[in-house]
From TrEMBL:
Protein name as annotated: Centromere protein P isoform X2
Protein keywords: Coiled coil
Coiled coil spans: 6-89
GO biological process terms held by the UniProt record: CENP-A containing chromatin assembly
Name of the gene this protein is made from: cenpp
InterPro entries xrefs: CENP-P
Pfam families: CENP-P
One GO term describing the cellular component: chromosome, centromeric region
Amino acid sequence: MMEKMSEETIEEVRVLEAQIEQLQAEVEDLQQQQQDNHKDISFNFRGHMQDAMSYICGQKHGAEKEKVLSGLKEEVEEMEEDLKLQTRMNGISLKSCTKTLKKSEKKLVQQLCVSGVCSDLVFQMEFLLSAVKDEQLKKTISDLNVVIDASDLQPFSSFLSGVEESRDLLLFFRTLRTFSDRCKDRLRTFQHFQEKYPSVVSLPAGSGSEVMTLNHPELPGCVLILHWSVEVCREGGVTPKMELLTKIPEKALKLFPSQAVGGAAEAFQSLLRVLGPEAAIEAVIMAVSLSPDT
């Protein structure tokens, strides 16, 4: 009987020892998580945010906790309002997710995936953000990859390659906004003239396309084609480019001097330089329609 009780006691002791070891391992994991949290606080936060996070994580104690947290709440609300204002001003809405790849006392490496929208342009980017804490906190970007969801990427191909090499995010966002603004200018102009001269102006591929056609109702087959593209150079410069093309049937060409037809493109470029885009386009429309009220 005593031997049986002794065996049961030994078994219970073993079970308790195993549970104690498991609890010790869990405590070590929690302590490691706490240390990681402290590192994240020192790396990623400054000022009121760092103080508040220190209270929340138990690094600091005292009567100032409620005051600090209240101040942090106000600061976050102000930042949210600033973010909304910035989104309205620059037209870019961003979402992001972060994954920590490497962490030590002096270095933090994170992989960031950012998606966003600028007008009708949807884009995604991935890059590594390395933060090294020495005398000052230094952050660097590497392995940048940018993808734009657009039907025609020709204007961006060279520019995106340059951005990925230079890792200049500010240049990317600034150029994207400028490109979007120039496309909006074209859209508004096309819609304006289509509404004002519906019998002459047509937009075969829609108001968001690069092409507007001018066709006089009494001259079927004789078409002037305005091609308005927005080009982006490798350095981020955004340049609207307009060309006037002619589509004249062979029979009509015999009735008009070839020089007059061929000079339409050059004449339009002269109008652009003197009058600007909208006035130059309207001058051509009026010439085609032969009446400002057509």
